[in-house]
Amino acid sequence: MTKIIVFIILIFSQVSFARDKSTLNLQENGRLGIDSKECISIENKLGQLLYVNVDGYGTSGNQTIHPAYIAMVKDLNIGGVIAHPGGNHMDDSKNHVNDLQNDFKKLKAAPSLPLLIGVDNGRVSLKSVGTREFGLGYGFGLLEDTKNQSNECFEKIAYLNAFYHRAVGLNHSLGPTVESNKRSSFLTTVEGKRRARQLIMKFNNMGVATTMKHFPYTPETFNLHGKSEDTKIPADIVYKMLENFNNVNNEADFAMSTHLLNSNIDKEDMATFSKIWIDLLRSRVGFKGILITDGLFMFKSYDETMKNMSSKWPQDQIKIEDEYTIFAARSILAGHDMAFLEGTSKDTYRIFNDLLYIACQDKPVSIDFRNKINESYSRISAYKNKNRSTLLEDVEVPTDLIKKAMLLNWSDSCKFDDFKKEIDALGILPLSRVGNNSSKIRQSSGVN
Questions:
Q1: Beta bridge partners of residue 81, listed in sequence order
Q2: H or E segment at 236?
Q3: In sequence order, what DSSP letters do the residues of 99-122 get, joined into one string?
Q4: Are 51 and 342 in contact, with CB atoms under 8 Å apart?
Q5: Per DSSP, which regions of 127-242 are E strands?
Q6: Which of 7-16, 163-172, 276-285 has the weakest average pLDDT?
Q7: What local confidence, expressed as pLDDT, does residue 445 receive?
Q8: b or e along 405-418 (b: 16 or more beta carbons within 10 Å of the residue's beta carbon)?
Q9: Cα–Cα 20 to 30 A to 157, which of 164, 295, 329, 378?
Q10: Omega before 66 cis (within 30°)?
Q11: 216: preceding bond cis by omega (within 30 degrees)
């Protein structure tokens, strides 16, 4: 009994943290700078702009999502969560595949708008099929490693990988990675880009959204990710890469930026915090979808980068000490729709409350911030409402069907027509495209 009481207190203490700096609390403490109704409106929208790691899942073989995390997702109306099922072996006898599905069902039921449940390069296996495993959140590998397969075979492989995601309850893949890889220039070719579009289509038809990354699609040898060194990539190479991938980019409803600094485009900021870069994506590339930051937590390995990027916050208007709050706010102000965060439920509450404080002041940066929140929320909610049924759908996939899929290798995948009929019979709902229209761009790029 004592353990139950302590457990309830633990959950309550983490959840109640959310109200520490809510609109009402800001008002009661004289820290509310705008009308309370406007602040409440922002409070109800803000969580949709956060894409956060699943607290307590996928580490040290832990397959349980903490109840406090599920409560936080609902309390803050979080927009997206990312799971990391890396290297996890699911024991058939314990039915861990269904455990994973059930955990994701609990998360889906939490927010008022459908929750994006994503994955980035996770791997899952069943002990009964030996060393076989399937990848989730496929990035560059699926496109690169199948380039010698026939088009018909590639389409089946893409279909099968989309099914893997849907089978465990995911509705969003943080992939594919499409920038030119140092091993190959395959994706800069007409055929490579055609296959990228095929991959996106197969995933959409399986009810799984894809994310083109990493904008601005510079070659991997230039991509320093979390470091602050100036890449000094010539502007003509940048514009060529944007032109090379604009038609592919606009096939997806999501894109992810990368932490890249290039003074030939923006002398002050890396792409994550740059209005100049994001304006290129919106105006030159014509992307109308949802833009996500790469993991803001990547900066923690680079003290100098954190110092440089946080120093650009207007402390004279609103004093903020937490660096990750500054990173999230600056990325949204630059034009990102969702900020990718890591941490516990308590960390997410802290950042949420600090962001709400910023938004609910009568300062120039606050006015801009509120406008950006409203703009991004409109874009996110339009997508989610259009695809509400698909994003919320719980597909009951028999474990035996998952086993059949896992036992296929790529050569077998090209011959699984009978098995495909079993998957099709599940009646999985597809996603609908929202907003993007790449026909004009595709004509100008000369790619069919």
A1: 52, 117
A2: helix 235-249
A3: HHHHHHHHHHTSSSSPPEEEESSE
A4: no
A5: 133-136, 172-173, 211-215
A6: 7-16
A7: 31
A8: bbebeeeebbebee
A9: 295
A10: no
A11: yes
Residue 318: name the closest of 26, 76, 18, 123 by CA. Answer: 26
What's the full length of the chain, in residues? 448
Q: What is the pLDDT of residues 356-397, one digit of tens each?
A: 999 999 999 999 999 999 999 999 999 999 999 999 988 888
Residue 327 has pLDDT above 80, yes or no: yes
Closest listed residue to residue 271, CA positions, set 243, 298, 244? 298
Buried b (16+ CB within 10 A) or exposed e, 219-243: beebbbebbbeebebeeeebeebbb
Q: Environment class of residue 281 by beta-carbon count within 10 Å: exposed (0-12), middle (13-18) or buried (19+)?
A: buried
Q: What is the mean pLDDT of residues 399-417?
A: 71
Helix (H) / strand (E) element for 256: namely strand 254-257
User: CA-to-CA distance for 12 and 429, rounded, in angstroms?
Assistant: 37
CA 151 to chain centre: 28
169 three-state secondary structure: coil
Q: Is the dihedral of CA 28, 29, 33, 39 positive or negative?
A: negative
pLDDT tens digits, 49-68: 999 987 654 444 445 677 78
pTM of the model: 0.86
What DSSP letter does each residue of 320-351 carry, written as one string? Answer: ---HHHHHHHHHHHHT-SBEEE-S-HHHHHHH
Q: Does an H or E element contain 161, and which? A: helix 151-167
Residue 178 dihedral angles phi and psi, to the nearest 5°: -125, -5
